[in-house]
Write a structure and sequence with these properties.
heterodimer, A: alpha/beta, Rossmann fold, six-stranded mixed β-sheet, 25% strand, globular, B: 368 residues, mainly alpha, ABC transporter involved in vitamin B12 uptake, BtuC, two-stranded antiparallel sheet, two-stranded antiparallel ribbon, 2% strand, ATP-binding cassette domain-containing protein (chain A), ATP binding (chain A), ATP-binding (chain A)
């Protein structure tokens, strides 16, 4: 899956106001500077890829965005208003949902029970307040169908799903619960070719529903396949944001690796990395 | 969304039959066990075992164990263990005995007070486990000894040197709450049935079985409520989630700590209920009450389909597990088989159940 893809790209609107805007974010842990002035924004309906090698500060950055860490310096704006998240719950309530690599899925439980875990729909009152199983099942089937996955039954254990399907359940769950910005932490890193394209197709669907997607990856091909904009993070700093069409995969790869050494390596490996 | 291709059914998925679906229910193993044990005793035991009085005979110990087993099962589904249940029965028995005999409290005060103390101890167990992050196995093992020892010391203090506290029956005889926790229910119905010659009766016309022992009613009601909570309420979902993956559950907004502490409180309260029932029934309490019950309860829960790793199991399974237990303990006395085979049988049953559960878990999660 090279630069040329089957996915349709909505033209990024240049005048739109970003849902989330982060300006000059710095984060220090003791004497370690994990982020040294990172600026980033997400528009509704776009897929903004955040690229970076291991240790570039991607995880710290998304944790700042999702309210796990408080930035040492810098500002976060939500729909133009300054925001101060003190917990992940705050960020979630503001519509910023994060799908971490562990997916927060329990293999032994059914898809429905996972989908509504912690946010079960109920019916009845007081002592008879109970889980609305029918509603939960119907909503799960519907949400999964919208993402292009036909479940055998909502009782199916998540453990029986493939990695890509699990990723899709996690994404569908975030969207169902009203995510406006969806942060995906390396959703394709552990997947095979086919599963990866399923997840990329899911990202495309979510984007078309008007959700801003932050796609974190270190795989340039995956980023080029769905990304509208690309930001490269290297050693805690952003090296600028490029729009789709303004940059090639090779240039992104070089930016991620910090340039020179990679060029030498790539020569010896025949451009396969 | 014209480009959304309809997801095609994977051609490598086989259609799932009814039998396979049934296999995936955690309580199936226990149900099969009940059938197997029943068939075994139908052939080996004397016919009296399966008369009404014979059934009551093995259901009574099954009920006492079952109340503990269902509590243990719910805690195991929630991902924790409680090895202090048996000692808790002795300790609650002491507290309850002391309240009614030494302090002369009426049941309406003594029972809630006993439950409150037990609940506090359960909460203490849970809090230590959650605060320290130590395995609940080791923390509750400590409480197994602490509570057993405290019961012994407490009994000596309450009685002035004896390890048995008598006089409970006299103290509660005329209390209006006594029938709720001891004796038989539906005695009128059984007397009527005997008069109609529908059940066995003595020559005097009195029925051989005066009624259903109340612990059986507690047992059945508790099994139904626990099943309902597990399968049909958000709290039930939280229990499965907390046991399945603590991290994933709390990231999804499940109050894992609250769930687990509540479950520790629940097991302590189950132990207390059994203590109150058996102490009133026996009219006395002693330090050996509930001895080894923690293991029996966990075995019943495992036979009932609970995984030792948590996140999977059922209350109905523990219900059947306890019935198997009762049938085997009492059933062997109806046979010519040496009763000391009981423990051998128990161990074999446990091993078979664990192997079976492991196999089922792999089927459910699709592991290979």
């Amino acid at each position: 899956m090279a630069g040329d893809t089957t996915f349709h790209h909505g033209a990024p609107k240049t005048d739109a106001q970003p849902i989330v805007q982060m300006r000059d974010i710095e984060k220090h842990f003791g004497n370690i500077i994990a982020l040294a002035g990172v600026s980033f924004d997400v528009l509704a309906g776009e897929c903004h890829c955040l690229l970076g090698d291991n240790g570039a500060g991607k995880s710290t950055f998304i944790k700042t965005m999702s309210g796990v860490h408080k930035p040492t310096k810098g500002e976060i704006f939500l729909n133009g208003k300054p925001m101060d998240f003190s917990s992940p719950r705050d960020a979630m309530e503001a519509g910023i949902a994060t799908v971490f690599q562990d997916l927060a899925m329990i293999p032994l439980m059914s898809v429905t029970r996972n989908f509504f875990m912690g946010r079960e729909p109920t019916k009845g009152k007081w002592l008879f307040k109970r889980m609305d199983i029918d509603k939960a099942n119907a909503a799960t089937m519907e949400a999964m169908r919208e993402m292009g996955i036909k479940l055998r039954s909502p009782d199916q254990a998540v453990g029986t799903l493939s990695g890509g399907e699990r990723q899709t359940v996690a994404i569908a769950r975030a969207v169902y619960f009203g995510a406006k910005v969806l942060i995906l932490d390396e959703p394709t890193s552990a997947l095979g070719v086919r599963q990866t394209s399923n997840v990329l197709a899911t990202i495309d669907r979510v984007r078309k529903q008007g959700v801003g997607v932050v796609f974190i990856t270190h795989n340039v091909r995956h980023a080029m396949a769905v990304g509208d904009r690309f930001t490269v993070l290297n050693r805690g700093k952003t090296l600028g944001t490029a729009r789709r069409g303004d940059i090639t995969g090779n240039e992104l790869q070089d930016l991620m690796a910090g340039g020179q050494e990679m060029a030498a390596l790539e020569g010896s490996l025949g451009g396969t990395v | 969304m014209a480009d959304v291709s309809e997801a095609v059914q994977d051609e490598r998925l086989k259609q799932e039959g009814f039998a396979t679906k049934l296999m995936k229910r955690p309580e199936l193993g226990a149900l099969a066990g009940v059938v197997a044990v029943t068939i075994f005793f139908l052939f080996t035991a004397s016919d009296t075992m399966f008369t009404l009085s014979g059934v009551m005979n093995f259901m009574t110990p099954a009920a006492q164990l079952g109340i503990l087993a269902i509590g243990a099962a719910m805690l195991m589904i929630g991902g924790e263990f409680d090895l202090s249940i048996g000692s808790m029965v002795a300790f609650s028995g002491l507290i309850f005995g002391a309240f009614v005999v030494t302090f002369g409290m009426p049941l309406v005060i003594a029972i809630p007070a006993t439950f409150a103390i037990a609940a506090a101890l359960g909460a203490l167990n849970g809090t230590i486990v959650l605060k320290t992050g130590l395995p609940s196995f080791i923390v509750t093992l400590a409480f197994l000894f602490i509570l057993r020892g405290a019961s012994l010391v407490g009994l000596k203090i309450a009685t002035g040197g004896s390890t048995q506290l008598r006089g409970v029956r006299d103290a509660v005889e005329n209390d209006f709450l006594t029938p709720v926790f001891s004796g038989d229910a539906f005695t009128g119905l059984f007397a009527w049935l005997a008069k109609q010659e529908m059940i066995d009766r003595f020559s005097s016309g009195m029925p051989k079985v005066p009624g259903i022992p109340v612990e059986i009613l507690w047992f059945v009601a508790f099994a139904l409520i626990a099943t309902y909570v597990l399968l049909r309420t958000p709290q039930g979902n939280w229990i499965f989630a907390s046991g399945g993956d603590e991290n994933a559950a709390s990231n999804s907004g499940v109050p894992v700590r609250r769930v687990k502490i509540s479950l520790f409180v629940l097991t302590a309260c189950c132990a207390t209920l059994v203590a109150i029932i058996t102490v009133i029934d026996a009219g006395s309490t002693d330090a050996r009450r509930g001895f080894m019950k923690e293991f029996e309860a966990i075995i019943a829960a495992v036979i009932g389909g609970c995984l030792l790793t948590g996140g999977y199991g059922s209350a109905i399974g523990a219900f059947f597990g306890a019935i198997i237990f009762g049938m085997v303990t009492i059933g062997l006395t109806y046979t010519t088989i040496d009763q000391d085979w009981f423990q051998v049988f128990l161990g074999a049953m446990l091993l078979a159940a664990v192997l079976f559960n492991n196999f089922i878990r792999k089927r459910v999660t699709g592991e290979r």
